[in-house]
Design a protein that fits this description.
4 copies of one chain form a homotetramer. The first copy, chain A, has about 375 residues and is an alpha+beta fold. Chain A has 9 helices and 18 strands. Chain A starts with a strand and ends with a helix. At the A-B interface, strand 1, helix 2, helix 6, strand 11 and helix 7 of A face strand 1, helix 2, helix 6, strand 11 and helix 7 of B. Strand 11 of chain A pairs antiparallel with strand 11 of chain B.
Chain lengths: ~375, ~375, ~375, ~375
Amino acid sequence: MAGSVFGNQFRIMTFGESHGKGLGVTIDGCPAGLPLCEEDIQKFLDRRKPGQSAFTTARNEADAVEILSGVFEGKTTGTPIALLIRNKDQHSKDYSNICDKFRPGHADYGFFKKFGFRDYRGGGRSSGRETAARVAAGAIAIKILASMGIFVHAYAKSIGPVHISEVDLDEATKNPLCMPDAKAAKEAQAFLEECIRQQDSAGGVVECIATGMPAGVGDPVFSKLDANLAQAIMSIGAVKGFEIGDGFLAAASTGSKNNDAFAVEKGKVTTLTNHAGGILGGISNGEDIILRAAFKPTPSISREQRTVGEDGKEIPITIHGRHDPIIVPRAVVVVEAMTAITLVDALLSNMGARLDEVIKFYGREL
Amino acid sequence: MAGSVFGNQFRIMTFGESHGKGLGVTIDGCPAGLPLCEEDIQKFLDRRKPGQSAFTTARNEADAVEILSGVFEGKTTGTPIALLIRNKDQHSKDYSNICDKFRPGHADYGFFKKFGFRDYRGGGRSSGRETAARVAAGAIAIKILASMGIFVHAYAKSIGPVHISEVDLDEATKNPLCMPDAKAAKEAQAFLEECIRQQDSAGGVVECIATGMPAGVGDPVFSKLDANLAQAIMSIGAVKGFEIGDGFLAAASTGSKNNDAFAVEKGKVTTLTNHAGGILGGISNGEDIILRAAFKPTPSISREQRTVGEDGKEIPITIHGRHDPIIVPRAVVVVEAMTAITLVDALLSNMGARLDEVIKFYGREL
Amino acid sequence: MAGSVFGNQFRIMTFGESHGKGLGVTIDGCPAGLPLCEEDIQKFLDRRKPGQSAFTTARNEADAVEILSGVFEGKTTGTPIALLIRNKDQHSKDYSNICDKFRPGHADYGFFKKFGFRDYRGGGRSSGRETAARVAAGAIAIKILASMGIFVHAYAKSIGPVHISEVDLDEATKNPLCMPDAKAAKEAQAFLEECIRQQDSAGGVVECIATGMPAGVGDPVFSKLDANLAQAIMSIGAVKGFEIGDGFLAAASTGSKNNDAFAVEKGKVTTLTNHAGGILGGISNGEDIILRAAFKPTPSISREQRTVGEDGKEIPITIHGRHDPIIVPRAVVVVEAMTAITLVDALLSNMGARLDEVIKFYGREL
Amino acid sequence: MAGSVFGNQFRIMTFGESHGKGLGVTIDGCPAGLPLCEEDIQKFLDRRKPGQSAFTTARNEADAVEILSGVFEGKTTGTPIALLIRNKDQHSKDYSNICDKFRPGHADYGFFKKFGFRDYRGGGRSSGRETAARVAAGAIAIKILASMGIFVHAYAKSIGPVHISEVDLDEATKNPLCMPDAKAAKEAQAFLEECIRQQDSAGGVVECIATGMPAGVGDPVFSKLDANLAQAIMSIGAVKGFEIGDGFLAAASTGSKNNDAFAVEKGKVTTLTNHAGGILGGISNGEDIILRAAFKPTPSISREQRTVGEDGKEIPITIHGRHDPIIVPRAVVVVEAMTAITLVDALLSNMGARLDEVIKFYGREL
């Protein structure tokens, strides 16, 4: 299957490899009339950009985005919006020591078995660099949501063994690990520095909250809002787990504790707790949507590892080059992007749910 | 969006409500030539059927399946296979005490906000009964996989606070909780009996293993095999979390421990560990595929709960009727079904990945 | 690919064979709140039903429809609507003389090459009987459109060499050939009687007009309204040509004649002519949508024909059994159905085209 | 709906406007291992390029294509192939006289009603220039087909009142009108010269033949091969009619004449005639696939025409600028492209039709 398309009404298709000419995405189905310029997108790409701290690869990429289509006189026209990010720093690398070996924890072997050969330069399409295209598309989705009063924020909830104790969204924008807890961020930095010394890498958990989502959005039974979010988030490289609301903790709870009682507050239906994470039966209930993604440790480590070559023989491998010791801080904005894309798609798909509203909508014409 | 379709090359569409005339599914894209009779499907439905132990609802449903199309002279023809399961025991219930109130933990409120009204009889389309259609389709997918040497097995990994200590697949078919550990099953039964006494309910975790899956299957970047599995599993009612391989544990590991070293065994590439759960970069690597689903406690409990009515006023609710104190044992076969459907779809989608194989395939014709 | 699904937001999946247990369709994405009962659907099926005149097969089928799901208290709920039409008169036939031969003009050979074997009973899935499921789904689409002031009417424009000279929609419901011109209908009847005497069959053209369609609907560049209509209509068995507006005549016209000048009438933008058939650039322009489908002659004729058997050897074939000498009269309602399904899908898909309207739509919630 | 995606297994998404930065397409699902360079694509774009004769717009565009991704060491990798064609000559135009008026025969009014505003520069997304992206993607599809022995050729069958009398494919590459008949080409040139003098435009019919297509490909009932071809071809701007095989002529034929008798030739099943155009019941039968597209006259003519402005008032319009007096010659390669894309998608989708072949395919792994 052609696996580089996501979404139905708001639909994106990405392309590009780590060491090719560039990365890009086309967004189809973006509503007309959204004010949009390159800077709107660039600020999100800058959050994902490498080289911003000791904990991200030293690769030097401007990640400058160019809008190729779909915008006229500063507004989206409703036609496809193509975005291009050219690679700058992709030529110098020597891959001779890994080009015929399968890196453990990487997609190399799967790509080789599937396609018969592979682009060994920096992982090709399975590089983390692929997510730049997701972020570019996500920036547009985030701007659409903001125009409707819906906001999406993600942060690092844990890094290796270090968990946050508080959520200060402001703080999450200040420290290089995107942790919303200054104390935890310091501990995590110390932990990561030790990882680097050990030629090792770490994982972590990203949490994402969407506020302002109206109730009644989601498409049971297979395109439930949480099912679509799960696909969106699990499709990000290195994600091995997904939770909505209390997630795995709910499995150990009881119905009386886990059920969120409905109540009325200022004339509006709300819930007294939010174990469900804003989605029940696959449909939003108007509460905050809360999800989490578990990121595995960066598979590229500089220690020697056991592996196998394309010739089917065992051989040791040592991976040189620039690699993040942890994926999480740069992945935070990717989780926001994929969440936002999924929400916009669900909102647009939902507009035809009631006949009276469809009739009213087209009544403008009749 | 029309949310009742799943899959691309092997595509299913389900229908039906808990208290309507019945449930069903149409499977489109099933390869021609699979021997298929109703008994092949019935045996899977029987595993999901209510009324089989003290821990499942007393509702009396034969769940007898009828094949309406797509099979001729005992074999699938390649055309759509429609399966119908008529409801038998759906008429007697009195819903007057809940028909205008939103049950906590249920989809009632979301359906009401989305569609403007709702089928209050037993949850309508958001009832667990909807999964019967998934199991019926899954039975066919499981039979296809078996013909290729691929086998899917799920079981209860935990129920409430009780976790298994061993995996004895045979045992999982013997106890009513589908736990592959007789001792844990006994403890879980005692725990559930206490839950029932407390008018409460419990959750749990289902684990599923697929063996024999060839390497090289999955469609990056959005239709990665684990991303599609995540959507498939998260779309099952009451699932709040999904993991592949080590899942959330991977987030606390290090690269050196989490990477699965490649090795050669009997001339075949394999990995020395399987933290990845058989999928790397969204493509199968030939190892066992291992996934987990976290099920929340059954939301329907007989204790009085706080809620709100359709009139927007707070009101207490007491839910009568037949409800499982735990979803997990009956969900085990649903997880197998959704896993199998996803794997078959991926296998069929993958056949055009290499030009040389496409040319060879059609060479039979040329 | 799974080819039995059509539409995106309003999506149908059909199943069933001529001589299996029955035919059916599931409609997913039907807006909630449409009053619907079996009689709403039955009256359209009755128009397609066999045995109604000398020009349709004598097969005796009640074609009684059963609504299996998606309707509660007389209204659609927004969940999938499954419709089942059981076959009654499918058992008696003797197919021994054709079961291993390929009928000329039929899908037999293609099915055999694709699937390795085929359901030879009455054509199986490629029987004209398959269209009953389309008509059932179309009845719902037609009812949705009517609630919005959009009406779809089709009729026979020509039968064999006989063309209509006027369009009297009322007349089209009175004669067995669905021709909107009583004089032409008589001539066509005489022509068909001669065809029957000659053991031969005839073709014809169906024209369909949709009135009341709002301007601004359609999704360039690949899901243009006319492109989707073309797929819908060409997917009906025996259709070999499709036209929108002037169709092939436009190819011989000039720009100055073929362009429809815009004008203002009663404060509304309209066009002075309608060569375009209501669609420009793939988007409706508010004028009547006019399309035509060319139906080939019924391939089943009772004359002996040359053909080949499954063993690859030439052999003569004589097709016995009940066959319409012309497909057109029974196809008229099928064309209406597929047109209506396509229009509803386009209308629902179009609601998110402008950001200001999306914001206003969800403003009800915020 | 997002309407800029076409295909399922071989899936393309296009973007770009006539007067924006450029046009492009991403091809997802292209099998790995196809040798591909920019010249392979350029030669098809050159056939569509403006400024090549007196009968095409004088706009000066190199239409130089850049491959942005998906190719490594001269071969496709199986990942998305992005192609970019930058506009060169898009800046100078003065649109002040049409920017607030709806051009008759154009998509202006529909775009305005759908999106609330429009890109008035040269038609934006509804410009014929959009087809460059189709041709670029089609060049890849054509190369895939050629590797399998399948060849696609289109030519002008008629221009205005001038019809061809013979099909000399070689001749079609020599004259500027792509007519496979030198004498007809001369007459058509004289006719077009008169059109230009009259400040008018002309239409015509393009015919396309695909040879070498294996039998058994196509996905009934909605994704029949001819239904998908119809959508593909009708989605090309200015196409108003589509035929497969005898098309509308079949409607006036009889079964005994229209049925193609099967026969055996050199041990292969074939048909004695090809009225069906290579497709029966939506599945290829191994004969040549023959289709036709009716193109309306270019709507942009320099005569004054009646129209309406965005303010809803009647106003005359005179369209200046560079416009082809006929679309057909440049559309020939677009028809080839869309045909090839549809065939490749169908071939890839078809590989899982038989279980025995699926098992054999994956047997390489087991």
